[in-house]
Write a structure and sequence with these properties.
InterPro entries: cNMP-bd_dom, cNMP-bd_dom_sf, RmlC-like_jellyroll
Largest sheet: 4 strands, antiparallel
Order of helices and strands: HHEEEEEEEEHHHHHH
CATH class of one domain: Mainly Beta
Distance between the termini: 27 Å
Strand content: 15-25%
Number of helices: 8
CATH superfamily of one domain: Jelly Rolls
CATH topology of one domain: Jelly Rolls
Pfam family, one: cNMP_binding
Structural class: alpha+beta
Keywords: Activator
Radius of gyration: 18 Å
Helix content: 40-55%
Strand order of the largest sheet: 1-8-3-6
Protein name: CRP-like cAMP-binding protein
Organism: Psychrobacillus insolitus
């Protein structure tokens, strides 16, 4: 599992193999069972995560009590809640494991200590955030301008593994449609899934 971490460090830093090993030995890696909630909506986050293996769902419950899925995190994706703009610092989302997962677990209280000790770690984090933010901006703009069928086609092109890893009702919520509409679109496109 640490090979994924080494790959990321090599991509975003010029750390030597020895430096990467030192950092990897200081980083906490935990296993989480399917169904584990990492953070609940309304709680103040104290951890951040990097997915080595598994699938994590990000969702919120709206004022009508309906769950709305806003993202799925899979291998090689970071999970962080950016909420410093809020006075109470609470999360607007719940993050839950859809599969048994192996995650790098970062302690937000220790983040600055790690950055001071390993300056390239901060550079790596910034580059990861910049890359992810760019993707999110692009995906959001495309999503807003797309029809439900185009959204599914984009998902099949960019993240096809989600079709088999995510329950249909959650996938439909993520695409902004009903499960019935998703079934009809999948039939038209002849897509196999869960």
């Amino acid at each position: 599992m640490k090979s994924i971490l080494y790959k990321y460090m090599s991509k975003f830093t010029s750390l030597t193999e020895e430096q990467q090993l030192t950092i990897a030995n200081e980083i906490k890696i935990d296993e989480f069972k399917k169904g584990t909630t990492l953070l609940r909506q309304g709680d103040v986050p104290t951890k951040c995560y990097f997915v080595l293996k598994g699938c994590i769902r990000q969702y919120s419950v709206n004022e009508n009590g309906k769950e709305v899925t806003s993202n799925f995190y899979t291998e090689e994706q970071a999970i962080a809640v950016f909420n410093n703009h809020k006075l109470d610092k609470s999360s607007e989302y719940t993050f839950a494991c859809l599969e048994d997962s192996i995650l790098v677990v970062g302690d937000l209280d220790m983040e600055q200590v790690m950055y001071t000790k390993h300056t390239q770690l901060e550079i790596m984090t910034r580059k990861m955030i910049e890359e992810n933010f760019g993707k999110v901006q692009e995906e959001f703009a495309t999503f807003i301008a797309s029809t439900p069928e185009e959204r599914l086609k984009t998902l099949l092109l960019k993240r096809p593994e989600l079709i088999d890893r995510v329950p249909q009702h959650q996938l439909a919520s993520y695409l902004g449609i009903t499960p019935e509409s998703l079934s009809r679109i999948k039939k038209r496109l002849e897509v196999d899934s869960k």
